[in-house]
Amino acid sequence: MTRRIGITSTIPVEVVLAAGDVAVDLNNVFIADPDPARLIRYAEEAGYPRNICGWIKGLFGVVMKTRCVDAVIALTQGDCSNTLALVETLMINDVPVIPFEYPFGRDRDLLRLQIEKLAHVLGTDMAAAQEWAQQLRPVRSNLVAIDSLTWRDGLVSGHENHRFLVAASDFGSDIEVFGRKLDEFLDAARMRAPLAGDVRLGYIGVPPIWSDLYEFLETQGARVVFNEMQRQFSMPFECDDIVEQYRTYTYPYGVFARLEDIGAAVSERSLDGIVHYTQSFCFRQIEDMIFRRKLAVPILTLEGDQPAALDGRAKLRISAFIEMLRKKKSSFPQGCGVREGRHSIDFGKDS
Residues 6 or more apart from 36 whose CB is under 8 A from it? Predict the structure, then answer.
């Protein structure tokens, strides 16, 4: 019987597919719900504190209220520390949980061991997972093409880029349908005229809990031409080996692995500025000080809490930031990646 396996973050999805199961990214189910706030309310009514990340509460609500999965693979290292408590609250409610860990130091042998253990638990092996890694290369190559059409050709919007790349964690739980949608979208996008927008932005941090961030940025004449974590989810690496693929993936390995990737994008994609999204009550908020010290472009830090549209204050700060970048474009050189020494221009951070 085909099982639906929930995932709390990007894991070696090839192992799930090799086992004949369906991967379901619980984050995508949560944020795509017609009323995602109801899932947070469910978690709070079950006892989750109000001052806990909305994504964690949303994941609990998805699993318990929708009953859309048969088991959950949870990152117990390489993701939010609150995931550990999420796991415990799922287990006490009789939800089967399979732990998976990314080794902090990117140790190849430890990572291979984790993937092998996951394969064993799911009833498959590394050889079958490696075969799936090869089968997925055409789909992943098309995701790279979408990214190139975004930043190099200006034919794909930041929101479209986000939508396809973030779905690469589970391929919409149906690879054939997802692959067809990719093909159709690429065919249509290549026929377009370049999109308008004179300010080139990078988006870093976890995907936003807000519903309209990208659309609002575009109404202000800005284009997001780099989605950091979403691009990482798509695995845009030329790796023939599944272990090396997930070792190259930056998200689970700390801020410095991410800095190298972001710095390269600042230079290659000629970013004028960066929007750093942080989730309320998330430890990743602390990393903002590192980005401000090391990235050589202006940064606007935005903090989100509940699934909703942007509020007036956030819109005002975004508009002012974009206007500042527009005025400074003729006076300051474009970004040159990661640098040592002084902080980048500090345009403000939510207090």
Answer: 30, 58, 307
